[in-house]
Amino acid sequence: MQNGVPRFLRKALPHIVALLLFAAVSALFFAPQYEGKALRQTDMVMMSGVTSDIQQHIDRYGEHPQWAGRNFSGMPSYLINMNYDGRWVKNVADHFYILGQPASWIFISMAGFYLMLLLFGVNPWL
Question: Distance between CA 64 and CA 57 in Å, rounded?
Fold first, then answer.
């Protein structure tokens, strides 16, 4: 058993180093996010106004409306406000954002590319 642990660590070392390097690069590149800074995105700022009638309907009736009347003279509300119980993919994905957003997006992308290279047979130290 004692011989198995160092052998396992020796085999896992390039992968651990790669993932730590990816995490460090992502965290350094997106360091301003840890200071509370974020890009001001006008579409996200205006989203609060667009979704206000949907949220009012949810607060008043306790159900998600099927139609939003304020945006583009009316449109289906699932195209505007995606806060409903059926969005399980988003809920699962939120657990993978260990570095916070957007740093985790880059980390996950680099880790996925690393996994692809491993599957293609590329040397892990490369």
Answer: 7
